[in-house]
Amino acid sequence: MDSRRDPLQARLTNAPDRLRLDEWLPPQHGIAPRIRFGKHWINTLWAVPLLAVLLAAAIVAARYVRTLPSVAAFMATYPGLAPWPSAVHSGFPWWLRLQHFLNLLFMVFIIRSGIQILADHPRLYWSRGSIPGREWFRFQRDVPQDRVWTSKDDSVTIPAWLGIPGVRHSVGLARWWHLSFDLLWLANGLVSWVLLFSTDQWHRLVPTSWSVFPNALSTALQYLSLQFPVEQAWTRYNALQQLTYFITVFIAAPLAAITGLMQSPAIANRFGGLSRRLSRQAARSVHFLVMCWFVLFIFIHVTLVFTTGMRRNLNFMFAGVNDESWRGVALFAVAMAFVALAWVCASPLTIRHARLVQRAGRRLIGRIKGLAERWEPRVQYADTDISSYFWLNGTLPRSAAYEALRREDFAAYRLRIGGLVARPCTLSFAQIKAMDKQVQVCEHFCIQGWSGVAKWGGLPMRRLLELVGPLPGARYVVFYSFADGAAGGRYYDVHSIENMRHALSLLAYEMNDAPLTFMHGAPLRLRCENELGFKMVKWIEAIELVDDFSHLGAGQGGYNEDHEFYGYRMPI
Ligand SMILES: Nc1nc2c(c(=O)[nH]1)N[C@H]1C(S)=C(S)[C@@H](COP(=O)(O)O)O[C@H]1N2
Ligand SMILES: [Mo]
């Protein structure tokens, strides 16, 4: 179609290839993280003095109990070093050292971009819905009651040295970093598991005797009493070390992967058995707690590396030698300089070359993510699961034409369906409502992190496609909104025609048994249950079937794809 003649396409706009801070959502600062106890929000910064006092008390207590004869006897029986037979005889081979370094490097980007993603909806919940006031953790104020408060309004700024790219509501770019490095991290982890178990190195990490527990207790007492345990780390770790490494490598890491994937609409809306037990919000909370474990682990791990024989420890993991030379320190310094350089460059690079980050991310993980689109979403909930609060998102329609239609309850509304179809048509609102109606109770997944269950009623997209008859070349379905996007220009989004044939793909005109409200997208909004929320266009004006979308807007497959560097395929 020629865009000069088509007013639908004429109102689409191009988008810059970099993140323009002057046109972006202005910064907004949150509050120090708080945890809720009943009705009270406690500032987590209290944890710092509290932990300091507890640590001091624990040191005093440990030093005291070690003077008791029974404790001394216990520690003589369980000295803390593995009495179990398996020692490692291959030192620290090159692959182990390389994987340790890669793991460290990848974790830096995963944690930083993860915090950025969290800041886009700075609240954590245990229940399925995202009900303000029922969070257990947040770094944002109460939701204002006296004005429209969208989920974008709720996002907060975190500094660029911490988040990637450190700009408010940059979740699209942060996700490319997060998911790309996740893939690298998982690959590195899987290779390391294989190598661990095909050599003798697994003995370092896997306890093979129950005596690991009393020995770990003994080691903990030795650390706490500031009389550090005897180290034999070249061949074996002490019991506490072994236990914490085991938890980190074989429990925390897989848990991070599982709870990450369970936040995806395509996966959660496919595997009901899983998602009924572990809702997206619970998965997001656990995912965050696993991150806290990793951060705590890194902090203690690094502290102990430096306080329990720095040169020897660094020689093990960075030089692979068992001596007191400075080689390990030198190699460690080079490695850290590289990490620091990458750290400093990540945010400015992402802002300046946002489109490049989007393209590179799509190259790396676009196809793998796309595989999840092959699953037909099918999970539905009961009416009793409907969320009492459903966040709003998006930029409202402001055109006079839309206002005129809305004033008369869309009596004069006409949905136009054209493009590569055998029978282009125009349907009135009454005609649409007279066709087959389908009702479904489904969970919505916003890219920002909130979710909510609602009951949607409307016309199945597959019926509409049957009516118009897609031509053989038609591969995509474009939805044009009455509303503009945040940076001006018409909001639109493109879906694969396969996605629109899913049983749960719906042109909704009802929400929770009532007519769809203005805020939620009246007269029509899309439901596509295997994709993230931004792909479900609200206030639909027209639908067009096309063979390609590179000529629309900035060519990325939708408004937020163009302007906020989201991916076109967003089942994960
Ligand atoms: N026209 C239009 N549709 C839109 C948006 C928008 O900004 N404009 N925002 C999307 C996003 S990001 C989400 S999460 C959902 C939110 O739908 P809700 O406001 O009904 O919760 O609408 C989507 N549809
Ligand atoms: Mo969203």
3D structure, described in words:
- With 572 residues, the chain is an alpha+beta fold.
- It has a domain at 7-18 and 376-563: Alpha-Beta Complex (Sulfite Oxidase, Chain A, domain 2), CATH 3.90.420.
- The protein is 44% helix and 13% strand.
- It contains 20 helices and 14 strands.
- It has helices at 7-10, 47-65, 69-77, 94-118, 151-154, 171-198, 202-205, 212-224, 239-261, 265-268, 272-277, 280-307, 310-319, 327-352, 354-371, 400-407, 429-434, 461-468, 497-500, 559-563; strands at 34-37, 40-43, 123-124, 137-138, 414-419, 425-428, 438-445, 451-460, 476-484, 490-496, 506-511, 514-515, 525-527, 540-546.
- The protein has a 5-stranded mixed β-sheet.
- Strand 5 and strand 6 form a beta hairpin.
- Helix 9 (239-261) runs antiparallel to helix 12 (280-307) and helix 12 (280-307) crosses helix 13.
- The protein starts with 6 loop residues before the first helix and ends in a 9-residue tail after the last helix.
- The mean pLDDT is 96.
- The structure holds the ligand Nc1nc2c(c(=O)[nH]1)N[C@H]1C(S)=C(S)[C@@H](COP(=O)(O)O)O[C@H]1N2 and molybdenum atom.
- Molybdenum atom binds at residues 393, 446-448, 533-534.
